[in-house]
Write a structure and sequence with these properties.
Radius of gyration: 34 Å
Shape: rod-shaped
Strand content: under 5%
Number of strands: 0
Length: about 80
């Protein structure tokens, strides 16, 4: 009985696969970098919104305190 010959890999197919993987890997990295940049922009904008809300609430508290103080002074007279 003769020994069965194993299939031989096609070098051109292997090179094409490696090349394709490298190209797609680079695209994935670029897409991830783009995604991260968009995520950072969103985080920054949400942070600005949150900080703005805090500033507005602080300003409202100051106004309310000023009004309360004004009423207290008016009632004291």
């Amino acid at each position: 009985m003769a020994a069965q010959q194993l299939p031989v890999p096609n070098i051109a197919n292997m090179q094409a696969a490696v090349s394709g993987m490298a190209i797609e890997g680079n695209r994935m990295v670029q897409n991830l970098q783009t995604y991260n940049a968009h995520q950072q922009t969103l985080t920054t904008e949400l942070s600005l919104r949150a900080n703005g809300n805090v500033a507005v609430m602080q300003q409202l508290a100051r106004i309310q305190a000023s009004i309360t103080e004004g009423f207290a002074l008016t009632n004291a007279k």
